[in-house]
């Protein structure tokens, strides 16, 4: 089966596109980073291997619509923006999560790419609300969300258990 790469947006410093099987090596290289893992759910394996990348890419490609967006820089897959649709009475909402390889931190790429991915997601789904949960020590991610237009709606005390510690979760939302 030949995969077609769908480009969502192409900028001077990055491309936002669909994931491809060929992205596995680059994905494993950039996501195998404890500094990234420290800000993600424990469902993300660490260390992150080529096999983990293959499993992720197969899962993404099996989805019916685009819910995961590859951030490409200089021809390499270096980050992800993913949406998890909610269900039942929350079915018009989705949680968003994102990461980018450490060499690309603080360059404004995630902020711009997140805006574009959310616009695309709102245009191509029936979702009217996107939310994000950020670990209390991740102030750069909070700034990204605020720049994109999210509002902090609360802080859940000791809602996260990560690295043998309870930490607070900052809850953000963006309404279409």
TrEMBL record:
Keyword annotations of the record: Transferase
Keyword Secreted tagged: no
Ranges annotated as spanning the membrane: none
PANTHER family: ACETYLTRANSFERASE-RELATED, N-ACETYLTRANSFERASE DOMAIN-CONTAINING PROTEIN
All residue ranges annotated as the N-acetyltransferase domain in the record: 14-176
Record-linked PROSITE patterns: GNAT
Protein name per Swiss-Prot or TrEMBL: N-acetyltransferase
Keyword Transferase applies: yes
GO MF terms, alphabetically ordered: acyltransferase activity, transferring groups other than amino-acyl groups
């Amino acid at each position: 089966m030949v995969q077609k790469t769908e480009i969502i947006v192409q900028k001077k410093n990055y491309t936002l596109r669909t994931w491809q099987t060929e992205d596995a090596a680059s994905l494993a290289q950039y996501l195998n980073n404890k500094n990234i893992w420290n800000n993600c759910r424990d469902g993300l394996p660490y260390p992150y291997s080529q096999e983990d990348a293959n499993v992720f890419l197969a899962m993404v490609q099996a989805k019916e619509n685009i819910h995961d967006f590859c951030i490409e820089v200089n021809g390499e897959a270096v980050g992800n923006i993913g949406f998890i649709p909610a269900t039942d009475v929350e079915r018009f909402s989705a949680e968003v999560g994102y990461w980018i390889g450490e060499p690309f931190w603080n360059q404004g790429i995630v902020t711009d790419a997140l805006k574009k991915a959310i616009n695309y997601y709102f245009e191509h789904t029936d979702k009217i609300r996107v939310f994000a949960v950020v670990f209390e020590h991740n102030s750069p991610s909070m700034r990204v969300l605020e720049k994109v237009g999210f509002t902090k709606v609360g802080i859940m005390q000791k809602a996260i258990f990560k690295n043998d510690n309870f930490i607070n979760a900052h809850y953000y939302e963006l309404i279409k």
